[in-house]
Amino acid sequence: MSGLSLLAALAALVLASLASLFLAAGGEPWQGNAAYLVSIASFTLYQALLSTLFSLIFGALVALALARRHFPGRRLLLALFGVATALPSIVAVFAFAGIFGRVGIVNAVLGAIGLPGLAIYGLTGILLVHVFFNGAFAARVFLAALEAVPGEHWRLASSLGLPSGAVFRLIDWPVLRRDMAALGLLIFIACATSFAIPLTLGGGPGSATFEVAIYQAIHSDADFARAAVLALLQIGAMVVLVVLAAPLLVSTPEVAALGRRIERPDRRGMALHLMDAAVLVIALLLIVPPLLAVIWAGRSLLAGLDPQVPRALGTSLAVAIAAATLALGAALLLSRSRATLGASGWARTARLMASAPLLALAIPPLAFAAGLYVIARAFGAADLIATPALILVNAMMALPFVHRLVDPPMALAQDRYGRLAESFGMTGWTRLRLIEWPLLAPSATAAFAFAMALSLGDLGVVALFGSEGLVTLPSLLYAKLGSYRIEEADGIAALLAGLVLVLFLVADRLGGRHARR
Prior knowledge:
mainly alpha
């Protein structure tokens, strides 16, 4: 009931914020037409479907290669994938433009050897950056699932002498398929609700998504009625999608074996070695150059630190820690409620609990934040709402990703030790510390770092509420770009990327320490 109460409170808050936008519109009529809606909906659907397909294929191939191979620098590569997943969108866009843009490094090389250049703007650029973000996230999720396969499976496969094809068909593919539906839905919603990437790389009105259209309605036209209608259409479509896909989101947890890692029997064979090497090289070519571009841009930090940066850094860290704590707490509560309901025979309610966090991605952050501001202004608290609203919106945007990471180990804890914990009357903090945390720790630390990284990179909401009293690193970066102080902006972008890298390295080390225990 606590999980259902949390969902009900979040739903009520979202509906109240959207209703406040309609009231703020003052009865203004809808300014739009059917062709406008069809254009936005068709491009949103098309680019999201392609982005999801390419991200899942990329993530599965990379996860299989990493599961089969252990090499020096593997942990750093995984940390780089985490950085890529949570890198601020605006930073990634500028990095890709610097590499693949008209005057970028790649086009300069292609021009020097007489080949036509690449076009980063339009659908190609949107897909490339979406795969950069979501393919890296899919690789981490798939790899975690593959590494949780019981060692008995690998012992049996070795004793039977199964070839690599049979290992994939009988062991790897069932594991990948089990997580593919939920992960694909999560990536699809993330791509369908993407904002900064289509806005900067879309190349024109024909590449506008719902999020971009809502931003234009609020920021450019001050048309709250149009923003509210677009937000309701987006939320309604995503609710229908999640409800239809809900039966696919609940699966039996993998009973992972604890103890010493068992080597896979398909690590031998030159053909498989070459294929894995090619996959990892392609992954490196996609992930590493944008990150190196950001690091190279950070050389301007050596020239001196802007006096505003320490203050913005402190604000960003405080907001990120609060948002990550809120997101992780909500995700753990929802996961425990879902696992308990599923074990108690409430299968339909458990499916609701499994899919409901995905709806947080369907809520347009700008429309939600604007509605909260309207509500606060009506109560005379507009000056006090900025920081709490920033924390709340960042936590809600991180909740689906955090929940996706902690839900499988929570279900595993319930499946293994739920009845035993109930027989001893273990509840609350005691149950979390003694029963659930040993299985949750690796995923929970990664989820906390991921939520912090997402909050550190948020620009949309802070741009709406930002003021002299609320300056974060992304808002300071945006201000530097707006005033054409490119070198200072490059330094802030590199600082953000460095923070995210440190977060994931620390989370990976802490999670690995708990896993070894």
